[in-house]
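User: When convenient, might I ask for sequence and structure tokens for a protein?

AI:
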Amino acid sequence: MNVVLLSGDLMFTPRLEAACRRHGAELLAVRDVESLCQIAEASAAILDLSTPGIRPAEVVASLRSRGVAAFAAYAAHVQHLILQEARAAGCHLVLTRGQLHAQCEQVVAQLLKLCAPGS
């Protein structure tokens, strides 16, 4: 199972990668929306909403049409509007950056559970 991460945050990526590995998944990290659209196969996506040019509704719709089943999105707690956009776009988990950092392991586990058959 693959999880795609859209983020330019190179410091946090290894932590998410380790959490994915512990849950039997591989993390595919990309830094921009254009690269995200070139990912061939993923079951879940984690979206950093501070990524330049991100439009949550368009990104979620595009990935969903290619088989991505579960979505988590995060941004700084002061970015209320884009967090609301992600929720409206159908992201299953919408978190502040601090919540994701504090609950990384649980978020990955919950995201992968949403991808499991019958979920």
Residues 104-115 form the longest helix (12 residues). The chain has one domain: 2-115. The chain has a mean pLDDT of 92.
